[in-house]
Amino acid sequence: MKTVLIVEDDLVNARVFSKILTKRGGLAVKHTENVEEVMQIASKGEADLILMDVSLSRSVYQGKAVDGIKITQLLKADPQTASLPIILVTAHAMAGDRETFLDQSGADGYISKPVVDHQLFVDQIKALLPQE
Predict the structure, then answer these.
(1) I need a surface site. Which of 7, 25, 50, 114 has the fewest CB within 10 A?
(2) Per-residue pLDDT tens for 65-77?
(3) Is residue 8 exposed (0-12), middle (13-18) or buried (19+ Cβ within 10 Å)?
């Protein structure tokens, strides 16, 4: 079973994503907003894809405040985790945000919140999951 790591500081969103992915997508789910934990899970290969909230308000890594863009940059810069698919999730859905965020972060995909079409959400994630 494929595992999706949800990096989200809003517990309601994390629960909604979790429920959609397990019930509709048949996927296993892990959740954390702890950046150290995200790095460990990624480097140990314990997730097949990361769903990354762009604006993590409380996240700190190595003493500095970081957001989802910065965490994605760190993961993409590390040869051990560079190929791990990362989908940015954000409520910032203004024209041009998608391209800007994808360019800045090196992420593989982008989904805007709130997630209205649950099946499309699952399909977007499954499309980026590594095939067996």
Answers:
(1) 114
(2) 999 999 999 999 9
(3) buried
Tell me how far apart the alpha carbons of residues 21 and 100 are, in angstroms, rounded to a whole number.
Answer: 27
7-18: pLDDT as tens digits: 999 999 999 999
What dihedral angle (degrees, nearest 10) is formed by the CA atoms of 114, 48, 39, 33?
Answer: 30
pTM of the model: 0.95
**Token match 């909604």: residue?**
16
Give kind and range of the element (H or E) at residue 16. Answer: helix 11-19
Phi and psi torsions of 24, nearest 5°: -85, -35
Listed in sequence order, the DSSP H helices in 20-117 are 35-43, 68-77, 97-105
Supply 89's token pair: 């999730």
- Residue 26 CA to residue 30 CA, distance in Å, equals 13
